[in-house]
Design goal:
The complex is a heterodimer of chains A (about 160) and B (about 120). Chain A is of the alpha+beta class and about 160 residues long. Helices cover about 30% and strands about 25% of the residues of chain A. A five-stranded antiparallel sheet of chain A has the order 1-2-3-5-4, with helices on one face. The longest helix of chain A is centred in the N-terminal third of the chain and has 22 residues. Chain A is globular. With about 120 residues, chain B is an alpha/beta fold. Chain B is about 40% helix and about 30% strand. A five-stranded mixed sheet of chain B has the order 1-2-3-4-5, sandwiched between helices. In chain B, strand 1 and strand 2 form a beta hairpin. The longest helix of chain B has 16 residues. Classes of the chains: A alpha+beta (about 160), B alpha/beta (about 120). The interface between A and B is medium-sized, with 22 and 21 residues.
Amino acid sequence: MTPEAKHLEVVLDTHVESVNLAEEMCLRVAEAVGFNEDECYRIGMSVREGVINAFHYGNQEKPEKKIHLVVDLTQDKMIIHVMDEGKGFRLQDVPDPLAEENLLSTSGRGIFLMRTFMDEFDVVSGRTGGAEIIMSKKIPAPGSPSSNGNGGASSAAPQQEA
Amino acid sequence: MAILYATIREVDTITIVDLSGRISLGEGSALLRRTVRDLLDNGHTRILLNLGDVNYIDSSGIGELVSGFTAVRSREGQLKLLNLTKKVHDLLQITKLFTVFEVYSDEGTAVGSFG
């Protein structure tokens, strides 16, 4: 962690409302660091899908388990981690929702949406014992098309006071 | 987070469901599921979902649209979509569901398309 970085960590209950809460929190951060409306939508949707994945597939909707949401702001990236307390999974085992035989499936599009909407995406074994989704998006420079004028890479992670 | 509202009307024997709000995990998806199931239980098998005021759909909502489509088809009916917002249009495009659903931007044309 560099002196300029910012870190937010929240532990959420395994509950449907946690999906909305996580999305709203990350949307506020994304807006504050300067992402425009379209990029905020993509980030919000990705967080939502990550937490749905943890809620439903990871924690199997068991209320005694927790969902861990971490947001790191570096000088140039917003990095989001979503960890569950399930058994974990391997990306290569996730069916392709765009395959002809899966188009009428009623589930299985969350990973695809996160991969599509974020710049970087991966799933690893998490420190909470289950899966850890890691995804990031480059913070826009002020004046760039994906900026809302609020922040930008140069001002997203201000130097901490000594 | 805004919830989903559904209003049902009939035009030329076609059941039109005007939806507004979010079709997402929780109440939104559940309402859509109940609405389609109730229509089928009451013999309505030609259904047009008007999504003109639906500003958000997540993967749960997409799953519910697909579930409704297959449920109606299994009763030898038809479920079609009307008036997609840009976000919903783009979402159906990237998930290739445009190849599954019949989508219309004009209600009269959509109603006339049912066989």
